[in-house]
Amino acid sequence: MSLLNDALRAAEQRQNRPAAPGAYVGEQQRPGNSKPLLTALLVVLLLLIAATAGYWAFANSSSSSPTVAEGEPTQDQAVQREAVVIVDEEQNAEPVEVQTPDPVPEVVEVEPAPRQDPEPVVAQQPEPEVAEPETTASEPDTTPAPVADAPDTKPTKTVEAEEAETEETSTAGVKQVPETPDARDRSTARELERLVADGRITDAERGLAAITREQTAPRSRYVVARALLVEGRQDQALDWLPEDMAVQHPKLRLLRARAQHANKNLAAALDTLNSNVPPVEGHAEYRVTLATLLQQQGENGEAARHWAELIAWDDSKGAWWVGLAISLEAQGEQVGAARAYQQAAELPGLPRSLADYVQRRLQALRAG
User: How many CB atoms sit inside 10 A of residue 256's CB?
Assistant: First the structure.
């Protein structure tokens, strides 16, 4: 940029520089004014030459263009005249073409009059009257006409009947697809639950009896047996929970053990539960019942083992910590019991009575 600015400044200085003394040489040439006169003459001559050249060119162009005489038509006029002549010829030819349709109306006049007359003649009734005696004479029975109509209707009826039969067979085929025992048990269990909800336990037992004639139906048995236990009818519940059936299903074993415990048979209930102990996951209620009954039986070590397994699976249940604390305290483990009680007290969800029991045991263990 500095170089560009320097160049601009130098140019401005050159433009503003004063003229040299030699510039007055032009003033010394004033006595002879010959150059302006010569230039003026040359300009005039050039104008004259240009004017003559333009006139000559115009004249040549006008002479070269074809001159049209007044009497001779131009090409456009000739074309228009030819078109007019063609149009005139076509107009003159029209009458000749119009004369040809003269025979056409003659043919048209012949067609409508005679051809329309026989149509009403054909529509006259004497012909069917003649045909009737012929049919009666040749064939005394007039049944052929309805017989001809019958084959038209019979196929349609048979087709419809066949379609109906195929639909019935198809639907019947769908309905007759045998359900698996598991699917039937699920559907029956849902029906039995509705009956139990309506208080119709007797009807539910009838439905259960119907399905158990053909299969074991563990879900349906569970629904009815649980409803009977709630009503205090544990003997009837045990009838639907035989030992060989309960061994195969943890939920049925749990109901059977509860029914046995309700009948004051703690040992039988423990035998039922201990026969096949399931894992904690998916069977937490089973393990809680087993641990509780073990505590009642006085088997606190085994009960503490089940409580510990439950807490290892889910340590957010305060009641499980209470169960562990009771089992530990029964074994004389005071420190472990106090820690379990404290953990239970810090968790929400404990019933008021159980929470009070926890506080009393904590105070007793700290005091003593």
Answer: 28
Average pLDDT, integer, range 148-169: 48
Burial degree of 328 (CB within 10 A; 0-12, 13-18, 19+):
buried
CB neighbour list of residue 73: distance below 8 Å, 6 or more residues apart = 81
Residue 223: C-alpha distances to residues 66, 189, 262, 335 (Å): 122, 7, 18, 44
Contact 345, 362 (CB under 8 A): yes
CA dist 368 and 362 (Å) reads 10
* Predicted TM-score (pTM) of this structure: 0.53
* Alpha-carbon separation of residue 175 from 164, 168, 189 (angstroms): 16, 10, 20
Using only C-alpha atoms, the chain has a radius of gyration, in whole angstroms, of 64
Cα dist from 111 to 46, 108, 325, whole Å: 94, 5, 122
Give the list of residues 6+ apart from residue 359 with CB closer than 8 angstroms, or none: 345
135 or 231, greater pLDDT? 231
pLDDT, tens digit (0-9, with 9 covering 90-100), for 197-238:
999 999 999 999 999 999 999 999 999 999 999 999 999 999
Dihedral angle of Cα 279, 284, 285, 287, to the nearest 10 degrees: 50
The pLDDT of residue 30 is above 70: no
Per the prediction, the chain carries an average pLDDT of 73
Q: Specify the amino acid at residue 239.
A: D
Q: What is the DSSP string of 10-60?
A: HHHHHHTSPPPGGGGGGGGGTT--HHHHHHHHHHHHHHHHHHHHHHHHHHH
User: Residue 47: how many CA atoms within 13 Å on its side-chain side?
Assistant: 6
